[in-house]
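Hi P.,

Sorry for the delay on this. The queue was packed all week, but I finally got your sequence through. Input first:
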Amino acid sequence: MKPLRTRTLRLALPLLAALAGGCYTPGPQTSAEPSPAPKAAQAKSGEAGDEDLAQKIGDAEVALQLAEIDLEVTRRKVAAEGTSAASDVAEAAFERENAAAALAHYRDLEAPKDVAEKQLGVDGAAQRLAEQRAELEQMIADYAEYDDDEKSAVTRDIVVGRERVQVEFAERRLELVTQELASLREFEVPRKVAELERKLVSKEEALEAAQRKAERGELEGRADTLRAEDKLRRARRELEELRAKAARERAE
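Then the structure:
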């Protein structure tokens, strides 16, 4: 057993010496140079990043164009709605002025004229009645001297009877036109004035509603325009940032 141990030590001594002196050379090692596969993967990853950025820039350019169109459409819409609202206000104001003029015309001119015409009819009927009564009285007085004459009495009765009928007609005419005058003053004129006043109030309310709608539309239009302008600024800024990023990457 001793010769085997001695031989083993002799074989191990050179190996220990080499390790101690740093001269031991291990077996073949793998080279430190990177393999071609990682380089290809990096290149492919870079190309994919460039394509993704280019796609984002294209999308941002489209978004910018859409934002510009949206702003233009919004401005035109706001302008059209403003013109329409102004037209509605002008129309409502015109109708209000017409209603006010109609009320003033009827109350100050037409109604007094109608009342005056009816009053004239009453005055004429009263005058006619007075004349008919005077004629009747005169006729009765003229035929009084023929009371004893039977033939003259018959003629008198016929003529006086006709005159009495005329007086009755005159009385009925006066009564009728007097009622018409009272109806005009107490019912027709107040009703017409009230109707025209209601129309005026309605037109005033319509004018106020049109003005409120125009004011609300103006505010909404300003808000829509501001939103569209903000959308355009955001789209422009996003495109500028993407283009700046692409320029930095090309510079690297």
